[in-house]
Amino acid sequence: MRNTIYFIGQFWLLLALSLAANAQKMHTTKWESGLLDHRTKVGPWEYYGITRSKEQIVVQRYDHTTKELLYYRPVGEMTYSIEAMPGQWTRRIVDRPPLFIGGEAALAAYTTQLQYPQQAQDRNVQGQVTVGFAIDTLGRASAHRVLRGIGAGCDQEALRIAHTIPDEWIPAKLGTRAVPAEYELTLTFRLAQP
Questions:
Q1: Per-residue pLDDT averaged across 13-19, rounded?
Q2: Which residues make Cβ contacts (< 8 Å) with residue 126, sequence separation at least 6?
Q3: Interval 85-125: pLDDT, tens
Q4: Rounded to 10 degrees, what is the CA torsion of 91, 96, 100, 104?
Q5: Could you give all domains of the chain from N- to C-terminal order, each with its CATH number?
Q6: Is there a contact between 185 and 130 (Cβ–Cβ < 8 Å)?
């Protein structure tokens, strides 16, 4: 009887381990690589970008379990509008800019959903719309507004797209301290040439 109970216990343990192993699987695309557990990203993930010379490079490493940025590829010094003290915004070079988890390729999943307004098409309106929004110290976006627009419904469409981007931001850093910063997103409206 004891041997039977031991055997059944071992069987269920092996079955549970097998199911757990099968639940996690490696996911790799041109833009990202990491472990999925029931369609949820877990552990460290690498995110890729393409250089001008068409070389694939790592632009970010992010641990989805600990919610910690492990690495990002700096693109040079950039000035951002940051909230250095409550209610006081100033332009400064930051030690780490606000980053979207997954990099530009992940952000493009939302920005490529741009729908060209019919009014803009009818009036042959083309150009770029820049939307600004604040990224707080918890990685949430708020206070979306058009910084530079072109009208004809394009400004509203750019705002709509900016609002679809999930709150999956890594806040800017000044020294070792996370600070609210304004992120500027530029969307291009260009009509296809006949």
A1: 46
A2: 120, 150, 189, 190, 191
A3: 888 999 999 999 999 999 999 999 999 999 999 999 999 99
A4: 90
A5: 23-73 (no CATH), 77-194 (3.30.1150)
A6: yes
For 110, the 3-state DSSP assignment is helix
As to burial, measured by CB atoms within 10 angstroms (0-12 exposed, 13-18 middle, 19+ buried), residue 15 is exposed
pLDDT reported for residue 77: 87
Cα(170)–Cα(59) distance, integer angstroms:
14
Radius of gyration of the chain (CA): 22
pTM of the shown model? 0.82
The whole-angstrom separation of Cα 120 and Cα 33 is 39
| Best CA proximity match to 35, nearest among 48, 19, 22 | 22
Torsion of CA 102, 108, 113, 116, to 10 degrees: 160
